[in-house]
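A common beginner's mistake is to predict each chain separately and then try to dock the pieces by hand. The better habit, illustrated here, is to supply every component at once so that their relative placement is modeled jointly.
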Amino acid sequence: MTDFTNAKTGPKVYPEQAIDADYQRTEPLITPEQLLRRFLMGIDLSSQMKDPLTGKSMRWTADMIKDIIDSAFSTAEAELGVNLRPVVIQEKHEWNRIAYAGFGFMALRARPVSKIIDLSVVPASGESIYSMPKTWIETAYMPRGQINVIPMTASMVGGDSSAISPTGTATGGSFYLTIVQNTGWVPAYWQVTYLSGYDSGCMPRMVNDLLGCIAATDILSMLAATYAKTNSHSLSIDSLSQSQANNSGALFNTRITDLEKRRTLLVKKLKSLYGRKVFASNV
Amino acid sequence: MILSLRPLNDVSSVNSFEYASEVSWTEGDSTQAYFQTIDASLDTGMKGFEPAGRRYMSPATSTMVIQIQNIDSGKVINRTATQPFPEDASIWMIQILNTDLIHGAPQLLVTLTEPTRTIRGLVKNAVRIYSTDNLCS
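With all components supplied together, the output reads:
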């Protein structure tokens, strides 16, 4: 648990940059009941194979569906490269003379970003020797992971980084701050702490749809395996014959294909929302 | 033993309630949330139990604190649970206040203090708190 009392809040992450709305576009994490209603309507969730000891078919229970939703959640986070629930990240960034001259441009690694908790100069000792005033941190592009430092006080007017005064007690702090004068690049110079993810499970409906697609595909795939038995029978006696064929293990293929198409589309949309889509081409 | 909670709905007595997959309310409502303590390591779904987990009755004088977790330490709720029915020590209730400003699908950290031991359990996806804020994100 983190104290956000002194954190600086950026624009809304969804709908991005929104300041008011007359319609709610978010909802808590999808429930088992919602998953059945939205993605598996009318499908019998009983295994086709029976337990040889009890003679009963195993059924998908609410607890099992919750577990699959949990797995879908992890899969979606990995697939999107986006944190779906809040997580506080602390990462280090290099001091780059060119980026610093560009008003402290910094691209945070996690998305979306909603609050900035701290931006400090932290050497390898782990002690903070200078903490950037929050009023200097520009958060306008933060949902997509970009922050800038726009100093608004006289101490930075000269643009000379040596004007920064160490606020901590770490030995050698002043020296560490001034070495940037003589170099263009210092690794792991900045330490930035921020909040990434959607606010406490209030996720875009699109995200729940993606989780639903992933979970429903897994459920149908497992169910289909229990149907994978002989898929055709034929019987012939003298000149009479009868034959029967069924889908067997491919019973849910149409639905699975539809879900996979929708999943691909949603992944593309959500990746593009937070700048996670990478496009490469030869022109 | 793996301590867990089974959400209950429409609770009026030890003989009148419904098992639920989650307890839901709207942020800002004043309500009660009921749960049944279970041992999640027994009577599992694989053995055909629905809902899974064996009902667990704690000894007399046991106390329970349910923490509704939030990444913001200022929004974490620690609430002492009560046993509304003396006849059934497995049913616990927490009072939700209209000042509890928390939404989404928070995890619950349960601490059950018995006369001889303390057991804890982490319960995921047991509550859904809907927000009335159109910009909840």
